[in-house]
C-alpha cells in the first residue's frame, strides 16, 4: 500500500522538555493505525504536529510523498487532515444537521439557509455511516458522548477529510458508547476512503479495530507491528518491561 | 397533549406571550382606558424603542457579548443629526444617516476593543458608556435642543412623529432580525460563537467578524431608537435614554424573553415580547393609579423569575425530558 502520510525524523521540544526525540511513522491509504504509549510518551504532541496545532523543530512531514508545512489547524484541514475532538468541536445549542454543516452551510433564495436540504443530506450521510440518532433535528446537547463523537467523525468524513486523527476517542465512555465508535471506525475502514490514527489506552480495543500498532516511548516509536502479528500479552509486556527499566534507571515512571 | 407541551417549550417565546396576554387581559378587565386608541398608541410607542434596542441586544447576547453603551448612543445620535444640520450644513437625509451611522461606528469601536484587544465587553462598553455620556453632555452643554427645521416635517413624521411610526419600524426590524437569527448563516454563526467559541472557530466560523458585526448592529439600532424617540417627543434630550434606562430595559426585555446571558441561545421575538410586557406593565400600573415605584419591584421579580425559569428549563431540555 502507498503511504498517504509519513513522518521522518520528526522532533519537537518545549523549552527544556523533549516531547518527541525522533519519530518515524507511516500511515498507508485506508489504514487504521493505533498509537499507544504511556502518559508523557509524546502521543498528544505527535497528533498536534499532524493536525497543524504545533510545528516540528526538525524532520519532515510528507503527504502523498510531498513535504508539507502544517502552519495551522485550518491549513491541515484544507489538506484533508482533521482531528476529531470529543466535545470541543460541536455546538451544543445547535441541531445535529446545523452542526454537520457549520461553516459550509447550504443557502438558497435570498441567501437564506436551505434547512430542508441540509437536514436531508445530514440524515442520508449519517445513515450511510451507520450513525443512529433519534433525529437530525435534536440539539447536540441532548445526545450522549458516543453519539456526539460519532457526529464529529461523520462531519469530518463529510468534509472529505482523508486522514482522521482520533485522540482518545473512547476516553470517559461506557462500553456501549465505545462499541458505537469502534463500529464506526470499522465501517470507515471497510469503505476505505479515509486513513485513521487512533490514540487509545485500551489495548484490546486497539487490537480489535486497528491494522497496525505503534508504541511510542520517550519520544520515539519503539515498536511497529501489524495487529495480526501481535497480541494483548505482547503489548502489555512491552509497556510493563519499559516501566521496570525506567524504575531501575531511577526515572520517573 | 404531550405534543402541545413540547411545541410550547420548544418555542420559548410562547411563555412570554402568555404573560403579555395575561397582563393585557387583566388591565382590560380593570380599566376601560387600556384598550382606548390613545392608550394603544402609548403602549406601542413605549414598546418600540425598547424592542428595537432589545433586538440588537439579543444578537449580541447570543454571540456571548453585551453592550452597556446603547442607551447613551441613543442619546448621542439625534444630537449628531442636530449638529450636522444646524452647524455643519449637512442636508436632511444625509444628516439622519450620519446620526444612525454614528451608532454603527461606536459599535465597531466596541467590537474592535472587545475582540481584537481582548477586553471583556462588559468593561469595554462601560468605558464607552461614560465616554459617550461625556461627549453628549459636553457638546450639548447638557441642554436639550430643538428638532432641526429641515427634518421637522415629512421626514420627522416617518421617523417617529407619526402615531404608528414607532410600531411600524419596530415590526420591520423585529421580523428582519428574527429571520437573520433563525434563517441565515449570520444567525447560525452567532449562536455557534456564543455557544462554543473554540468549536465555532474550528469549524471555520469567522468569530471576530460575527462578534464585531453584532456590536455594529446593536450600536446602529441604539442610534436609530434614539432618533425616533427624539422625533416622538419633538426634542433632542441629552437624557433620552435616561442614561442607563433604555439599555437596562433592553437587557431586561431580552432576558425576560428567554435570552441567556452566557450566550448561545435567545430569540428576537422573545426580546420584543419582553419589551411589550415591560411597556404593558408600566402603562397598566400607571392607568390603575399605582405609583411608578412598585414597577421596579415587579421588574426585579420578573427578571429573577424568568432567569430561574430559564436555567431550570434549560436543564430540563438538556436532560431530554421535553
Automatic annotation (TrEMBL), chain A:
Domain ABC transporter, chain residue ranges per copy: 5-243
InterPro entries named in the record: AAA+_ATPase (IPR003593), ABC_carbohydrate_import_ATPase (IPR050107), ABC_transporter-like_ATP-bd (IPR003439), ABC_transporter-like_CS (IPR017871), P-loop_NTPase (IPR027417)
Keywords: ATP-binding, Nucleotide-binding
One Gene Ontology molecular-function label: ATP binding
PROSITE patterns xrefs: ABC_TRANSPORTER_1, ABC_TRANSPORTER_2
Gene3D superfamilies: P-loop containing nucleotide triphosphate hydrolases (3.40.50.300)
Record's protein name: ABC transporter ATP-binding protein
Naturally occurring in which organism (per UniProt): Acrocarpospora phusangensis
UniProtKB/TrEMBL annotation, chain B:
Keyword Calcium included in the entry's annotation: no
Subcellular location field: Cell membrane
Transmembrane stretches, start-end: 16-37, 43-61, 68-85, 91-115, 122-144, 164-181, 215-234, 240-261, 268-289, 295-313
Protein topology in the membrane: Multi-pass membrane protein
GO CC annotations on file: plasma membrane
Keywords, in A-Z order: Cell membrane, Membrane, Transmembrane, Transmembrane helix
InterPro entries: ABC_transp_permease
PANTHER family cross-referenced by the UniProt entry: ABC TRANSPORTER PERMEASE PROTEIN YPHD-RELATED-RELATED, RIBOSE IMPORT PERMEASE PROTEIN RBSC
Protein name: Sugar ABC transporter permease
